[in-house]
Amino acid sequence: MSTQGILEKIVDEVESEEDELVDLCSKLVQIPTVSPPGESREIAKFIESYFGSLGIATHIYEKVEGKSNVCVELPGKREGKIIWLGHLDTVPPGDPSSWKHDPYGGEVVNGRIYGRGSSDTKGAVAAAMIAAKALSRLPRDERCSVEFWFTTCEEIGAREGARWLAEEGFFKGDICIVGDSEGFLPRDPVIDVGCKGILRVKLKAKGLAAHGSVPFLGENAVEKLIEVWRYARRISEFKLDVPKALEPIFESSINLFERRMKLNKSQEASLRRLYHFPTVSLNIIRGGIKANVVPDYAEAHLDIRVTPGTDMNSVKDRMINLVKESKVDGVEAEIYSLREGIYEDPKSPYVKSLSEAVRRVTGFSPTLRILTGGTDGVHVKQISKIPCLGLAPGVHGTAHTVDEYVTIENLTAVAKIYAVYPLLFKP
Ligand SMILES: [Zn+2]
């Protein structure tokens, strides 16, 4: 059969499984897998029995009992091996009464499947399962090898999930497709060619307690923090030395935002700086014990995101200097996490073949983007040294929100792309 013929065959195959795809997504949502703790044995067993009924073996790996990671291997005869990676765990639903749809109902309404994890990333898992089923029915010499990995604890650092699997040497392949992304399918597809790095800083202010009626006898730690924050926030004015090759990707990533979101003038200005300067967000502030006591301790947590390919240490050094420049006594900056971002060469052959798969399925050319957030791809890239690209059915702006949903249209499009890629991929 011609390549075109095989591609059409597998696309039709996935198309004919749409009802099962919806059902799978709905069932996956119905099995709670909240992180923490990231317990995932029940959902792993569900995946195991699904593939078991197709005569396909699965392997379950656990660093900690009950926190299961699942691997499904599909050996192919064509050269190359693709790793597919998606996570099974979700963030908590929050107050269920604020949801219109049951967070664990997996309700299907008007072309949408609702529930916690539907967009992030159980929809992608369902799409991968259907793609695996369709691929398994093709003769082996038509496809390269694919290994599907369904992992846990992504939402809490992946120490029992992808990061541990990478450290243990489980991931071996030529390319990793990360099913953790969101975008504007099916008419405005996106491929993530990288994601930003993360720097987390704790500002710790020490003061002197006193009675609230005689504040001049104490030293107010909260006020110290406020003063230091005025300096620390200037980290967002620190110009980054970005890789030249990524400039077109910054532009296309920014254009995507502009095309798809209604922004005011100030948001627009921030967006224009998104990749050439770090962003900083003051996300936690703690201090004080009682309304009539001058606080002797306060702390603030800053979330700083840095473009991949830039020098994170220079950002860290600048941060420490900014705190010094404030000249506030008794305040210290503790860097408690530093993780570099990742990126792939947008001109690489695997970006080209994935773009081709997207075009064949959707009829549209994908926008290449650098994600502002992070994914498990970071561990696969940095520890297993496998290039990573992101592509998934997630609906923009729905991850971690109330009434999270994914569309059937997105699921079907992505399942087709996952199924087509192993036929086009060349290492
Ligand atoms: Zn998430």
The name of the CATH topology of the largest domain is: Aminopeptidase
Low-confidence stretches: none
CATH superfamily of the largest domain: Zn peptidases
Strand content: 15-25%
The secondary structure category is: alpha/beta
Q: Name the average pLDDT.
A: 96
Rg on CA atoms, Å: 23 Å
End-to-end distance? 22 Å
CATH architecture of the largest domain: 3-Layer(aba) Sandwich
Bound molecules: zinc ion
Number of helices: 12
Structural domains: how many: 2
* Helix-residue proportion: 25-40%
Principal-axes geometry comes out as globular
> Would you report the number of β strands?
20
Task: Give a short account of the largest sheet.
Answer: 6 strands, mixed
Strand order of the largest sheet: 1-2-6-3-7-18
CATH class of the largest domain: Alpha Beta
Question: Would you write up a description of this structure?
Answer:
The protein has 427 residues and is of the alpha/beta class. The chain folds into two domains: 3-195 and 341-424, Aminopeptidase (3-Layer(aba) Sandwich), CATH 3.40.630.10; 197-240 and 277-339, Alpha-Beta Plaits. It is built from twelve helices and 20 strands. A six-stranded mixed sheet has the order 1-2-6-3-7-18. It has a four-stranded antiparallel sheet with strand order 12-14-10-15. It has a three-stranded antiparallel sheet with strand order 4-5-20. Strand 4 (108-109) and strand 5 form a beta hairpin. 46% of the residues are buried. The mean pLDDT is 96. Residues 91, 120, 155, 399-400 line the site of zinc ion.
